[in-house]
Amino acid sequence: MSARRKLIAGNWKMNGLRADGTALAKGLAAKLAAGPAPACDLLVCPPFTLIVPVVEAVAGSALAVGGQDCHAKTSGAHTGDTSPAMLADLGCRYAIVGHSERRTDHAEIDAQVKAKAEAALAAGLIAIVCIGETLAQRDAGQTLEVNRSQLVGSLPDGATPENTVVAYEPVWAIGTGRVATPAQAQEVHAAIRAELVKKLGAAAAAGMRILYGGSMKPDNARELLALPDVDGGLIGGASLKVADFWAIAESC
Ligand code: PEP
Q1: Is 99 designated active site?
Q2: What does residue 225 show for φ and ψ, rounded to 5 degrees?
Q3: CATH hierarchy code of domain 7-250
Q4: Strand partners, 95
Q5: Per-residue pLDDT tens over the stretch 170-182
Q6: What residues pair up with 94 in beta bridges, in sequence order?
Q7: pLDDT tens string 218-237
């Protein structure tokens, strides 16, 4: 029996105006208030513009709020960026780093992701470190090596089960409706955990949560979340609807 409490995290990406974000956050807070609470931690990561209204909307509930990215510095001449200290100041508890859309759209590399994760930890946030292979890499038989290398390159120094979460997100499954099979997901999650044993030791590796992300929906969540090394989900599209996100959480 795993002692790891599952985490269901919503990545809203660049979606929603104030009314949408507030309604979604209030809808989830109302579900939590009505009970029974699902057997997992719940997190939403709105766009930066919605963090304040969402934090206000979920005040007093167990729903945590996080950023979708952060800078590696606390302050300075970095136009358009947001520091982890700023996220923490708004009431965020988590920051996603290294999402494949950041790696693709902003050419982020492992060293930057690691620096961002370390800055998040220094600000008291929990870093969610994303890794995952492309379809071409999977087809070339490179899946385990790509994920191993991204993990080693992106994991922050000082990572513990309390301050760091790993998210395995096969790029070919994100937003495509094509989900990893349970066997594919478990194979990579187990390999990630084995690498964590080497890097952090057996106890820390056993306690660290590894989320699956990539077209997780209410109809496939239960099977994925039942896998021995899948400790929750990072949910994109299905996190934008209260009923879908809640149904996934209830699958834990
Ligand atoms: C994501 O953005 O991290 C993600 C997993 O998206 P989706 O659930 O839409 O595939």
Answers
A1: yes
A2: -75, -15
A3: 3.20.20.70
A4: 67, 127
A5: 999 999 999 999 9
A6: 66, 126
A7: 999 999 999 999 999 999 99
